Amino acid sequence: MSGIQESWESVRDNFRNGIDRAWRATVVALRANEKRGHNADRPAIEPTLAQMTPCANVSVVIPALNEARHIASVVSYAWADPATAEVIVVDDSSIDDTADLARAAGAKVIRSTMLGKGESMRDGANTATADIVVYLDGDLHELKPGIISELSAPITVDGADFVKAKFGRSGGRVTELTAKPMLRIFFPELSHFSQPLGGIIAARRALLKTMKFERDYGVDIGLLIDAHRAGAEIVEIDIGSLRHESQSLNALGNMAQEVSRTIFERAKDAGRLSVDQVLSVYEMDRQHRGDIEVIQERLQGATKVALLCMDGITTKDEYLATLAKSTRTFSELHAVQKEGSKSDESWHVRGSEVFRFLHRKTFERVALDMPLREGVIECVNQLKRLGYQVGIVSDSYFIAADIVRRRVFADFAIGNFMQFEGGVSQGKVRVNRAYAHEEGCRQHLICTSNLLIHLQQSGALAPTAQIIAVGGRSDDRCLLRQADYAFAIPSGEASLANEPGIAHVASLTEVVSAARLLAREERQIESGEMAQA
To answer: How many CB atoms lie within 10 A of CB 370?
Structure first.
C-alpha cells in the first residue's frame, strides 16, 4: 500500500470519528495525487499546513430557472462548506420565488444578461471574486457534505485547472447515446470522462474568463473540450451519488441536438471534422476492444476461461499464410519467416511490411473465408454452457481474430494490431501489450503465454479461476504450459507430441468431454464440502 493511500485511510478514519471537517481538503488532495499517478517525472505534492486547512477561496455559482423547490437548500448546502467564500445565484428571470428564496438563504442574486444556462454560467464567472469557481445545479438534492471542498482541492493543492465531477449513477441517455460516441470519434482523448455533460464543475476563474460559454445545453461539453484544447490540466473526481430532477423526452431531444452541434463546431475548429478522422477513430475504437484492459474488465470475476488458439485450432489453416497466398505475397512472407522468430518484435514488424497497402477489407475477407475446424462452433457453445468465458488467441492480427471470434460465437479475441489509415494498411503492426510482461515467459520476449500472467496478476479472475487452453503448434507450447488444463490437437508439427502436462486429444469434442468431467468433479467436491459443513 502506498504512503498516499495509507495517509488517506488514516485521515478518513479520523474524519469519521468526528475530527474537524477542515481535514477533508487533505483527504481529497491525497486521493487526487494518488489517482493522477505521480511518478519520477512529477513528484507528489506534499500539502503544507496552510493547504491542509481549507480556507474560503471558492465562489459558488448556481444558475437557476424556476427552482423554488430546491434553491434554498442548495444555497444552504453551499454555505455549509468551509471552502465557500460567496454564493452567487444567477436567475434566468424565474417566474416563481427562486430569487427571493435564494436571497433569503444568503446568496447574492443577479439576473442573467440573457436566457440560457451558458449565459448564466458566464455571468456568474464574471461576477465571482474568488480565484476558483464551483458550479452547482439549482435542482440538486441528497448531496453528501463537503463536495465544494472536494472539487476545489485538486486546484488549490494539486495544481489542476479544471475539475469535472462524476456521480454514483451512470451517464444519462444523451451522455451514452450522443456525447460519448461523438467524443470517441472527434476527441477520443476525452472519451474516458464518465459524465462529460455534468454541470458540477470547478475551474480557475482566470481560465473561465478566456472560454466561450454556449448558450444552451452544449455549454458543459463545450467547456470541457475548450479546457482541453487550451492545455488545461483536467481532473475528474467521484463525488458520490446525487439526485437531479428528470427531464422530459422532448427536452432530452433538444439537449442531444445542442450537444451534437457543439461537438461538431469544436471538431471543425480543431481540424477534425473529416471522413478520415471518423474512419481513424473507428479503427482506434475497434483496436481498443482487443486491449488487455478491456479483456480484463470483461473477465472480471470469471471462474472459468477457455482459450482457443486461432491458427490450426479454430481455423484449419494459418491466417498469415492464407492472407499471403490470396494476395500473392507468400514468397515475401516466407522469406521473413525464415529470418527470425515470432517471439521477436522485429519479426512482426518485418512481416507486417509484406501486407502494406492492402485494404482492410482484404484482411476481413480472408478471415471470413477461412475454413473452420470441424466442431469448433459446437465446442465453443458447450464450453459457454459449462460456464466458460471463451477467447480466441492469435499471434497474427486482431482484425482477423475478432472476425473468427464472431464466426464461432466466442466471447473475446486477442491479437496484434495492424495499423490502417483511410482503410489501407500502413505495413506497421502494434504488438499487443498482453503478449509482453517483465515477469512473463523466460524464453520469449513476445509470447501469447504472457496473456495469462496479465490475467492472473490483475485480479480480474476469481482466485480459484480455472483456465483451459487448446493449441497444436510449437508456437502454442508456452501458452499451454501456463494453463491449468492444456489440450493439444495433432497438427503437421510433431514438437508437442511428448510435451509433459499436455493432454493430447483427437478433436475438439474430446476437449468438451474433458471440460464436462472437470465440472462433474467440481460438483462432487462442492457436495462433499457441504456434507462436511
So the answer is: 22
